[in-house]
Every structure is written in C-alpha cells, then in structure tokens.
Amino acid sequence: MAQEVRTLHWNKLSDKKVQCQLCPHYCTLIPNEIGKCGVRINLNGKLQSNVLDKCISTNIDPIEKKPLYHFLPNSKAYSLATMGCNFSCDWCQNWQIAQLPSLNGNVFGDAISPETHIQQAQQTGSKSIAYTYTEPTIFFEYAFQIMQLAQQNNLFNLFITNGFITPTALADLQPFLSAANIDLKSFSDQTYRKHVNGRLQPVLDTIKMMHQAGIWIELTTLIIPTINDTELELTEIANFIMNELGPDIPWHISRFIPLHRLKHLSPTPLSTLKLAKNIAESIGLHYVYIGNIFTESTHTYCLNCNQILIHRTGYTTYLPNPIKNNKCPHCQTNIAGVWECK
C-alpha cells in the first residue's frame, strides 16, 4: 500500500532536496533526512511517509472523550492513530507513540486498510471516525483515504488536532471534515516555541479557518501551573474565542496531571480551573467545561431555563432532555451544536 499511495503536499527542490508543505514547519530535507514529525522522509529526492498504513491504535471511544460535547452526544467514535507528531509537547500524554519516532526513529504499527476501518466502524455502531491520540495531520494521506470512504458510508469525520496544519492541506480536508477539537495550548508564542516546538499564529489561523468553513469546532486548553495559568493569559484565550468565533464555541479547560518532562510540577488546582471558567463566562462564553476532574461543570445546561440537557459523569452520558432541531425542549432556546444525524 505504501508504494501505491502518493505522498501529498511537498515540493522538489534542487540537489534532491524536498520541502514538506503539510504543516507550518515547512521542513526542508536533504536525502535520507526525516522531518520534525518523525515520519516523513526524503528518499532519493522524493518525500515519503513511513505511516501510510501503519496503524498504532484503534479503539471505540465515547465521543465525549475527544472531547466533543456538542456533537452527537452519547455516540461512539471509532478512533485511530499512527505514530508521530509535528509537536513535541513537554506534557505529552501519549509521548510513547507520538514522539518516539522523533526520539529514536522507530515507526511501527499494523497494516490496516481504509476499507477495514470503515467496516469496523460500522460493525461497532460508531457514528463517526476520529483521527486522534497523536496528530492526524502527520498521517494525512492515510486519514484522507479513510475520510473519503467514511463520507461515502455516512460516517462523520472528526479531527482531534493541535491545529498546526497549512491552509492548503486543510483545504483538502474541509469537504470531508465534520467536527474538530483543536488544542489551544497557550496564548503565548514563546510558550509554543519553548515547550511545544511550534508557533501560536498558525494554530489561531487554523481555528478561524475551520470555523469559517462551517466545521463544528470545540477548543481544549490544558491549564498547566507556571506555564499558561495566569489570569491574563486565560483572559486572552477567552477573548479570542469570544471575538473571533463567538460565544457558542465550547471551551474545555482541563486539569494538568504531571507527565513526561513535567513530572516535577503539581496538578492544576481546582481553584485555577474555576477561575478560568469564571473569566470565560464573565466575558460571555456560553459553554465552558472543566475536564480531567469530576465536577458538575461537565453538564450542558439550557442558557435560558437552566434545565440540564446533557448529564455527564466521567464518560458516562445520558440525555434527560434531548435536544431537537437545536432547541431546548422546555423553552425552545437555541443550543449550538450538532445533535442529530441528518
């Protein structure tokens, strides 16, 4: 399969160099050099992907785990990933599969065809296919094949992404992409450069482009003590969401658990998470959820009558007041999201 699928979004340069144009790193590679993602390599003047069919993980997840709270709640998402990532976050929770290729060059996984993924999704009653766990941008060609088949088979496509993708690559995905959770890690370019090996502005551009394209988006920020937890930065993120996207975009503020290179830090205090929620709601955001900790802040309420529309405990979800036609069943207030398959 790897030899049958053409690697996309790259240009030939002189002296057998190539430039990858899949993500904003725009890696320029000499022969046998591997990009920052750890999985795209220049082989004799041609850019090749080492993960065209090497699937490292498949699972059936509740869609709430992505997290997507306003897109087909209580449905199943068939989830898949390959190895590799174009970021190297100091707090990466899946670093063993996301960052291992960049650390030691190892790339492995099972050869699973796009057709098999579709069959497995259908057999498990999944409503969607989620490209997740690592960064789906770096297995673009594999995901792109699956996405086209998924759409033909009435399955929704979901990107769980860091948002570090070029506009041209994103344009290819847009006709097939139904929803995305985008990780907005910080509102500081310095933090992105120091702790992530990336940049902020391309992520902000992706968020706005997806929103403008009509893709349902939700944002997630992991609040990390001493790194992105100041009142100023939390306010900047909330203002960006309000001013650029509007009040109805859900913002998931998640508790940090010490991992990877940041084991010396403490978990995020609940007080900091509540501060972020209060800031966002005072600015005018309608749907702010606290994650990675059990609180009532995972329920979805009607903005007008305050009825619980979606009750969540961990990943267990039930719908005491099902939303129909994007309306609260009690007072007919509009509730933003995608609530029914069409």
Describe the structure.
The protein is of the alpha/beta class. It has nine helices and 18 strands. An eight-stranded mixed β-sheet has the order 7-8-10-11-12-13-14-15. A three-stranded antiparallel β-sheet has the order 1-2-3, with no helix packed on it. β11, α5 and β12 form a beta-alpha-beta unit. α3 packs across α4 and α8 runs parallel beside α9. It is globular and about 65 Å long. The two termini are 33 Å apart.
What is the topological layout?
Elements: E1 10-12, E2 18-20, E3 28-29, E4 40-43, E5 46-49, E6 54-55, E7 57-62, E8 76-81, H1 95-98, H2 100-104, E9 110-111, H3 114-123, E10 128-131, H4 140-152, E11 156-161, H5 167-173, E12 179-183, H6 189-196, H7 200-212, E13 216-223, H8 231-245, E14 251-255, H9 270-283, E15 288-291, E16 300-301, E17 308-313, E18 316-318
Parallel strand pairs: 8-10, 10-11, 11-12, 12-13, 13-14, 14-15
Antiparallel strand pairs: 1-2, 2-3, 4-5, 6-9, 7-8, 16-17, 17-18
